[in-house]
Amino acid sequence: MEEHRYRGNGETRAWEGPSALGARRADARTVAAALEVLAGRSRRGLLGRLIPFLGPAFVASVAYMDPGNFATNIQAGARYGYLLLWVVLASNLMAMLVQYLSAKLGMATGRNLAQLCRDQFPCPVVWGMWAVAEVVAMATDLAEFVGAAVALNLLFHIPLPLAGLVTGLITFTILQIEQAGFRPLEMVIMLFVAVIGLSYLAELFLIRPDPARIAQHIFIPRFSDTESVLLASGILGATVMPHVIFLHSALTQNRIPIADVERKRRLLRMERIDVVIAMGIAGLINAAIMIAAAAAFHFAGLPEIGTLEEAYRTLIPLLGPLAGVLFAVALLASGLSSSVVGTMAGQEIMQGFLHRRIPVGVRRLVTMLPSMVVLGMGWDPTRSLVISQVVLSFGLPFALVPLILFTAREDLMGPLRNRPLTTALAGLVATLVIGLNLFLLYRLLHGSPV
Description:
Strand content: under 5%
Distance between the termini: 50 Å
Radius of gyration: 21 Å
Largest sheet: 2 strands, antiparallel
Structural class: mainly alpha
Number of strands: 2
Helix content: over 70%
Order of helices and strands: EEHHHHHHHHHHHHHHHHHHHH
Strand order of the largest sheet: 1-2
């Protein structure tokens, strides 16, 4: 087994090898093109210089436009129109900061978040964190798996249990692309993001919302009643997904292998651009979902639209069959891509915490079981999405807090450690998001709807 070394706790320590993603065959052309740019030798235009670095944040961004986001934004738009658009903007800015720190951690240390947790914390703590992270990954997979199955049911009238099996088969097939290297899978995920974005762009063209009314609400924080405050808390509280905090650090870990500090700084700037573009697109898609729901349902006097199936069936008589198809296609792309990302995150979590791997097919079958139970028992899919978000709230501190602590440490990050202001802002975001998750959990446990 090849020995690798890194700095930790003030001493040089050995570790067992690269992550599951880092061990796979890299795209030689992408790496070569990136190294040329970092060395200042590339003669390509601005876009050509940027392309080799785009990808990791797009994979992570899928978690911010998963079926759970669809359900929340549809409910907010149907009930309150454009009122909570500013919440989408605020939550997106928070997500950019968190995912940037995760990308920086993997790039600067050559380690991912789960590996660093294993190295830095006592063994009982590591086992506990691993257990929580695995439950979070399965809860995430439940939401995404159920969302894709609902989309297949809406598009092709496949019974939900069978649609669940089809979803599992498609997801497993997509995951096999990863064996060819990191770039092909990144491109597939980016294609899914493009499908979601184009579907909602076409949806907005059909709906033709009022730009002036949208502009009134996107930058000015406002509420109308206590329920709007609760729904805003739900949007903000579900902003940061624990599994992609772990995953993003693995995606950037040794993706472009460099040791020179100055080139690492240049690479970090490129990672920042990747995050801003990818998370910006995710934010625009979330805003489009809310705008479409507001224009189609709220201003049509249908504020009680609360489930994915209701949204689909209501769109058809209001705007025609194409609107329903576009909605279902976007939901399917969201569910499939986020299910792939969830499985990838689960692999990294297990290997990082325990240095153990299981075949991706076995993992796919195991994580399918809760989803198949939900679909087979006929439980409400949208309600299942809400419950999965509650489970996610338990795991959030176990990802956010170590991320902030590690990225602020000079012995781990070297000259790329956080500035005090960055750490302070990240701490504020973590406090706000964790607090909102706990608030929502309290409301749910006391019988209040989300």
